[in-house]
Amino acid sequence: MKNPRIENHSIEDSHHGEDDAIFSSETEMIGSISKLCHGNLYVIGRIWIQALKMALIGANLSLFPVVHAAKPDEPPQKPPKMKYKDLPIYESPHYEYKDYVEDKKKCPNYDVKLLHRYLYPKVKNYRKSWVDSIEDFKKDAGELKRDACAVICKKRAEFMKAMRAPENCTLRQAVVVAGAATGYYMAGRKGIPTKAFYSSLGALATGALCFPKETDEIFRLASYKIAKVALLIFNKTCRQNIFLRERVPCREDMPPPPPERPADKKNQCPPKK
Predict the structure, then answer these.
(1) How far is 4 from 10, CA to CA, in rounded Å?
(2) With contact defined as beta carbons under 8 Å apart, do 202 and 183 qualify?
(3) 206 C-beta neighbours (distance < 10 Å), count
(4) Mapping DSSP to helix (H, G, I), strand (E, B) and coil, where does residue 226 land?
(5) In this predicted model, what pLDDT tens digit does every residue of 226-246 receive, in sequence order?
(6) Could you count the other beta carbons within 10 Å of the beta carbon of residue 72?
């Protein structure tokens, strides 16, 4: 006798086998594979050709088609001069070129060169920075010059005040003597007139620094005396009669005016009849 449990298990296994099968028959399996390869045959062939091409000539593998953009139309060239009978009937190259030039002139950067367009901003910035640096340098130099001039003027005024102070009279006299001695030694081995001239110049320069008023009076008086002696010699030699007018005294050398008499002590003249 057969076991009913074993029979039930065999029936269940047969049912499970039928459910797990992909194809119910061999004919169905062959038909499905042919349908699968039929739709993708172009893609497979394309991939195979590109793989062979890359292996043989080293071309890049492109699975997607590449679309190249069309080249832009070239701008019309300037047509040559033609006679009236040589002009084309269905074309107007001169008008096309004229319209092209007019459209090009409407552009704001028509007259701007390419090199000028790219270099001008940089050159402008460099020039502006250079001009600003020069202006700053001039400003600093001007301030430095003004400060130096102010310091020099201040020191000069202090030096002049110190060299003309009454309490430094001995020092001032020593400076004048040193100036005369310097002029004498600058003359070197020259004659006595040259040494006297150089000594006078040295004394005059230092005297104008230390004793300006006294030096001015001495210079004026010496010039007047020398001119009178020279004219006297000239008159005696050439028998002329040229004289200098007398030296007019300075306002500081003139005596002060007398004080006015009081009103009660003035002589009152009687009125005329």
Answers:
(1) 10
(2) yes
(3) 23
(4) helix
(5) 888 888 888 888 877 877 777
(6) 6
The vertex-197 CA angle with 190 and 230, nearest 5°, equals 120
- Percent helix, strand and coil across the chain, each rounded to 5? 65, 0, 35
pLDDT digits (tens, 9 = 90+) for 160-209: 888 888 888 888 889 889 999 999 888 888 888 898 889 988 988 888 88
What lies within 8 Å, CB to CB, of 160 at 6+ separation is 209
Query: Any alpha helices (H) in 58-113, and if so which ranges?
Result: 93-105
- Say how far apart CA 118 and CA 269 lie, in whole Å: 104
Give the span between the Cα atoms of 242 and 228, in whole angstroms: 10
Q: CA-to-CA distance for 126 and 113, rounded, in angstroms?
A: 20
> What is the gyration radius of the CA atoms in the chain, in angstroms?
61
Closest CA to 207 of 199, 217, 215, 216: 215
224 DSSP assignment: H
